Amino acid sequence: MLGASAETFSKPAGLQLYSLRDQFKKDVPGTMEWVAKQGFKEVELATTYGMKADDFLALLKKNGLTAVAGHFPYDRYKNEPEKVAAEAKELGLKYAGVAWINHKDAFDETECREAAAVFNKAGEVLKKEGIQFYYHIHGYEFHKHGDGTLFDLLMELTDKENVVYQLDTLWAVLPAQDPVALLEKYGSRWQLMHLKDLKKGVELGNLSGGTDVKNDVTLGTGQMDWPAILKAAEKAGVKYYFIEDESPSSVEQIPGSLEFLKTVKW
Length: 266
Known about the structure:
- The protein is of the alpha/beta class.
- It has a single domain, classed as TIM Barrel (Alpha-Beta Barrel), CATH 3.20.20.150.
- The protein has an 8-stranded parallel barrel with strand order 1-2-3-4-5-8-9-12, surrounded by 5 helices.
- Strand 2, helix 3 and strand 3 form a beta-alpha-beta unit.
- The N terminus is likely disordered.
């Protein structure tokens, strides 16, 4: 029986605009208007769709939206972190991150150590501009390493002040990891989260960093234990939550995901 102590998800959920990449290719202003009509106030960027920063910011403002964070390619952090920092500052971002570490075949220790060095340098450069660097996990980091995983090594090697992390729930569960355990273990290192559900029946243990985009389903209809995950995220101090739905049905699914977040309890 739920008593007065039952809690609900009270944080405002933003949207990773990559969810609507196909729609943005056809109509940037119209798609941005759709985002606002769903009630979103905060967004995470993957690109500005060929628009200059000023024009893109004006479009966001027109729709009552604020860009909190954005993803940039790994090679750019590796080769020109100062330029990324300048672009992130121009866009008014609080956070600038990366969602994929370039690697050959299975992600390995050498690539992990190189990435840690790239992240530490990028974090240092961004911090000078008042921007926090973050890494978005993608599932391939959980290959075994010593008594843990390469993800544990990445955490160990990165500066906790300059490098924080974004937990993508699908990319934690697909490789058979426990998001709750990860949140409990690394606490405040997790500052951002992608809310993403995995279709029921999809086999776990996939360390490739990839799956059919149709395996992204409406929140609450897949394999995630949302009450446990959201409770752990709140305790860890996650600051920003973004729905990310990579499926071709994202326009139909996103409203349902928002409704689910209004009703989920723990």
